[in-house]
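Input sequence (257 aa), recorded before submission:
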Amino acid sequence: MSEFEKLCEIVARLRAPGGCPWDREQTHESLLPATIEEAYEVAEAARARNDAHLREELGDLLLLVVMHAEIAREAGRFDIHNAVAEVSEKLVRRHPHVFGKSDARDSGAVLKQWEAIKREEKKSDSHYLASLPRALPALMRAQKTQNKVARVNFDWTELRDVIAKVEEELDELKRAIGDEDRPAIEDEIGDLLFAVVNLARKCKLDAESALQSATDKFVARFNQLEDELRARGQRLGDVDLAELDEIWNKIKKDRAR
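Predicted structure, token format:
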């Protein structure tokens, strides 16, 4: 028995009569928060380049995949083997340059080929972006949207045009703020964020990862600021912005050395 088969049997036993009461109570819906959380924990471990943590989190995510499949099997809908077979067939079908006679060799050609095959498979979808998941985080969904339309040539060729778009959206936001038009402000902030995501994409960066890194950097600096206040016998909330800025700028300067 392979380790994967062993995992499937363990999950089936946990869900069976006489198994674990908690596991038996779970449904697809009840497992969704944990499934999403584990996917993010996989991402965190991968970004940290922590192999032990990544191995553990991949196992936790796989457990939830097997659990979802077991729930479906019990209802007579499908089982894990159907899911594995389907994804295997899809990989072969969408990689004709490996398993067939396509001559696509660079990554750009491969992605365009993938999209063409996917569109052919999903002829029932009336629009090109119909398969775009709405449940994705906003930054990730924006970049995925931009990546997909770029594959059908809806994309700027020059980086300066993307930068100009960011500046244009910022100017429109400033005007909306000046007019104190809250609906317009929200709309323009959304447009600005979308344009910035596009700039990240054109710079061959992942916007979600870039924002995550920026947030991590801010948290680390704020923790240092809090430590400095404690060393001075002060507390957050009792210090004015001018002093906080002084400490913050010193932390930034020290880290830049």
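Checked by second reader. The radius of gyration is 24 Å.
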